[in-house]
Specification:
The protein is an alpha+beta fold. Helices cover 46% and strands 17% of the residues.
Length: 162
Amino acid sequence: MEETESKETKSPSLVMTIAAVAVLTLVAGGGGWLVGVMLAPPPAEKTETAEIAPNATGEEEVPKIATEANGIVELEPITTNLAYPSENWVRLEVALQFDGAPDVTLAETIHQDIAAYLKTVSLQQIQGPRGFQYLRDDIQERVDLRSEGRVTNVMFRTFVIQ
């Protein structure tokens, strides 16, 4: 009889094993949660600095950086054919950064001037990075002359040759 009693006391019961595993699991889960909160606190509440208005489809639209309030005027896209070869077309989107309040009338005049200039450019003149840099410099120079220093920067949004 002593042998059966010693065997029963030596081997833990199944209920005790399950209880021990459950307690250890809870302790490990709580410790993991605590370390997670300490290392990566929950995100701060979202503060709305700029209102995001829904567009026509009901989706929220991200506010544009280029606005007249920032002194930046986005010009309408310019699409025109090149001087040579005349089969090639160029599409250019630029924005003008004004020193002070933007002048929409001046921006429209500059838009027309850039469109007229692009019609005189050949494909060979604007090929490659150096040609693009020359084009940027030429447009910046024309804008400086036309605006008499009121436009401080010409920002190229897109430039596509087809």
